[in-house]
Amino acid sequence: MTENAANTDDNRSGAGPRRIGIVEDHESVVIGLETMLADESDLAIAASAATVPELLAQGVALDLVILDLRLSDGSSPKSNVEQLRDAGLETLVFTGAENPYLVRLAAKAGVLGVLRKSEPNATVIAAIAAAARGEQVVTTEWAAAIDGDPGLLDVGLSPRQRDVLALYASGEKAARVASLTGLAPHTVNDYLARIRAKYAEAGRPARTKTELYKRAVEDGWLPVPQHPDHG
Description:
Elements: H1 3-12, E1 18-23, H2 27-37, E2 43-49, H3 52-57, E3 64-67, H4 77-86, E4 91-95, H5 100-109, E5 113-116, H6 121-132, H7 140-147, H8 159-169, H9 174-181, H10 185-201, H11 209-218
Parallel strand pairs: 1-2, 1-3, 3-4, 4-5
């Protein structure tokens, strides 16, 4: 059991408030959550940071982490949730983004729920309280992203295929990918053909390099690009 998990168990057995951590790179959102929970005696914001590694480095005992899907470090929601889970921490996604791909990535890693920033304060508070108790927070958009998006079927890439995909889709030429991975150029081309075939079989075409890039982002092998509607 990790230190965070152990501390969380200790806190839950006591009478103190549930301790909430926030991973959010917009200060106004953090302030808004602090204000929203100020009068909730059973909930307390105990830590906040702009990235998951920064939050974990603080070593604060937490019962729940509220996570934004889009962060300025370009990290994948799936990777962020997995890091938090490895530290023994459950996650509630709190986001203004309406990208079902990002929700799917987080859900695949195992979050307690996804909550929009546009929800009424009472709804947000109730959701945070439920998640802090370890309960699932089921919302329509979360269910739709998980159950209603067959276009994101897992294609079952091997670790080496994922490495090749990430390098090639990020802009490297096949010869450079071969150099970086230690593979022969013809092997890289063979891997790329197999990757495209697997995506095609899953109903997710990846004929062009741009399409391969999109698939790599959707599946969390490359960071999510920044967008004007960040958050």
